[in-house]
Amino acid sequence: MELLWAPWRCSYVTKKHRGCFLCAALKAGKDRDRLIVSKTRHSFCILNLYPYNAGHLMIVPRRHVKDLEELNRAERADLMDLFIRMKQVSRKALNAHGFNAGINFGRVAGAGLVGHVHIHLVPRWEGDTNFMPIATDTKVVSASLGALYDCLTKALRK
User: Which member of 29, 36, 40, 123 lies 3.0 to 4.6 Å from 55 by CB, making a disulfide possible if both were Cys?
Assistant: First the structure.
């Protein structure tokens, strides 16, 4: 496999992770700096700092729980309502043709953060897969996180 130079990941790889990065982002109070796109009473939406594709979002309950069954009805409804809203906004603002969505329960299921459940929402476009992942095992994300943040928050205000 070829190497991809990605110096921005160095701080993530070398940083000692204490606590939950999602809870820390919410508590920081600097939504743009922390890439928090939207907040509701029980949930929030944050851009994934290490996206699978441009516009990769995580829909997160405010309460730190590891599984959906630990949320009460109001929290689950709010989480799903925000998920649906962000899917609609992404479809319109980013002109997404489709989506992948998923929740990983447990490290063996692929969860990078085991303690705080969240839903991944990944926009997809016709032709967004190309030779790069096949030939070089490299994914190209074509939009900056700042530009995506601005685009999504502007669409949410409409």
Answer: 123
Q: Give the separation between CA 140 and CA 149, rounded to whole angstroms.
A: 18
For the stretch 91-145, pLDDT in tens is: 999 999 999 999 988 888 777 888 899 999 999 988 776 544 444 454 555 678 8
Which residue(s) pair with 99 in the sheet? Answer: 123
**Nearest alpha carbon to residue 113 among 25, 10, 11:** 25
pTM of this structure? 0.82
Residue 70 to residue 111: CA distance in whole angstroms: 17
CB 25, CB 31: distance < 8 Å? no
Q: Residue 106, SS3? A: coil
Q: What are phi and psi of 79, to 5 degrees?
A: -60, -45
Q: Which residue has the tokens 């032709």?
A: 127
Q: In Å, what is the CA distance from 119 to each residue of 55, 63, 82?
A: 14, 14, 10
- 145-157 and 73-93 helices cross at what angle (nearest 10)? 110
Residue with tokens 């929290």: 75
| Residues tagged active-site | 118
Which H or E run contains 13? helix 10-14
